[in-house]
Amino acid sequence: MDDAPLSGFHKKLALYSSGGPFLDGYVLSIIGVAMVQITPQLDLSDSAQGLIGASALIGIFLGAFVGGWLTDKFGRQLLYTIDLIAIIVCSVAQFWAADPVWLFILRLLIGMAVGADYPIATSLLAEFTPRRYRGPLLGGLVVMWFVGAATAYVVGEILLSAGDDGWRWMLASATLPATIIVLLRHGTPESPRWLANKGRTEEAEAILKKVYGPEATIADLSAEEHEDIDVTAIMRSGYGGRMLYICVFWTCSVVPLFAIYAFGPKILDALQLEGGLANIGEALITVMFLLGCVIALLGVNRMGRRTLVIHSFVWSGLALLLLGIFPHAPSGVIMTLFALYAIIIGGTQILQWIYPNELFPTEVRGSAVGLASSVSRIGAAVGTYLVPLALTSWGIGGTMIAAAAISLVGALVSVLWAPETRDMALHEAAALPTRTGESAETAGRPASV
User: Fold this and answer.
1) Domain count, the chain
2) What's this model's pTM, rounded to 2 decimal places?
3) SS3 assignment, position 316
4) Second label for 38, Cα 20 to 30 Å away, from 164, 165, 265, 289?
């Protein structure tokens, strides 16, 4: 499996798995445009704006770990569709939201479903993908996050002209892509690695033969150590150190980004890009985010995971720092710095899906991805909630400097702890150094912190 050629099955699985990140980017970004109409119509305070903007992130925090635990317990395939059905139902219900509390609850539920999809889809993709393509395909899921975000800003700008109910159509519009993804995912097989770990070897071998050909057998999975590891092992020994790094690096990567997306037009307005120009500017910056992820995907196997994450944090943090120091620079300079941030941060974005899936064994892979995603969303939700208050209290300059500081913290912890997993088979990357005979130095950085 680790050395198999890339097939049409792998490409389709990667495309279908990217549906969750697409919806995440869409849902989290469309609220930034919708808030232009929601705020006056529902008479929202700064605090209420922050809560509604952060509601989906809070939901992701709740849903990601639960979804990870469920997918490790009951399998990847079962939950692969159920979570998207929940998104469809709640997205439709948003159209009739009549008050801030109802809207907050619905977006909380949508966030829970989106969060659950992260560990489900990424674990399934990681466990099917050959080592040579694992990094680019897992990282490619993040590209779809930005495709979803860019789509949301274009759709939002169009629907703003639909009258006072434009925001309702914006929030309900996620129903269409979610329905398409549900239909495409139908018939996806269960992970043979998960089946083998549960003792269901006949089912695992049947799927292996169907995907990889009649020569494939359950022996192709024998290199992986099948140990009795439960979720508490994540927090012990070397896995505790790995989880600490993943949580810190992921949090530092998403806090500035999600804050920018939830209140992108408002931030750009504060930087003297007003009205429709702010929405279009946000869409253009999203394209730059997308470009940055594509560039990072092309370089992740050449540069290695460790080098990429460090450089991405350092130079993107510098771009935010310059925005904070020169908040009243000409609009061309502002857009250039935002574009630089968007392109350079692509390295940390793609590694959000690569690192967690590579550093933990099959038994707890879903739970580990879910836990890391949940912890990162705590910081992202707090950061998103504080954006309106920060803009009021600190101004745009102080807000951007705070975002830069978070990015530079990510750079520091990556210098200290980031491992290197390039060219490793999945079971090799997931094993602790002491189990493979490696020294901590050979592994890139200590497995325990």
Assistant:
1) 1
2) 0.72
3) helix
4) 289
222, burial (CB in 10 Å: exposed 0-12, middle 13-18, buried 19+): exposed
Residue-number span of the structural domain to which 120 is assigned: 8-188+227-436
Residue by residue, pLDDT tens for the chain (449 residues) are 777 888 889 999 999 999 888 988 898 888 888 988 998 998 888 788 878 877 887 888 788 878 888 888 888 877 777 888 889 999 999 999 888 999 999 999 998 998 888 788 888 888 888 888 888 898 888 888 878 888 888 898 889 888 888 999 999 999 999 999 989 988 889 888 888 888 888 888 889 888 888 887 777 765 544 454 555 656 655 678 888 899 899 889 988 876 665 555 555 565 555 555 555 666 677 788 888 989 999 999 999 999 999 999 999 999 999 988 987 777 677 778 888 888 999 999 899 889 988 888 877 788 888 888 888 877 777 776 777 777 777 877 888 888 899 999 999 999 999 999 888 888 888 887 654 444 433 444 444 33
Q: Which residues contact 160 (CB under 8 A, 6 or more apart)?
A: 33, 36, 37, 166, 279
Q: Residue 446 domain-assigned?
A: no
In a domain, 218, yes or no: no
Tell which residue, 261, 54, 293, 10, has the closest CA to residue 46. 54
DSSP-H helix ranges across 160-274: 166-172, 175-185, 192-197, 201-212, 237-262, 264-270
The answer to whether residue 254 is domain-embedded is: yes
Instruction: Select from 53, 55, 162 the least CA-distant residue to 106.
Output: 55
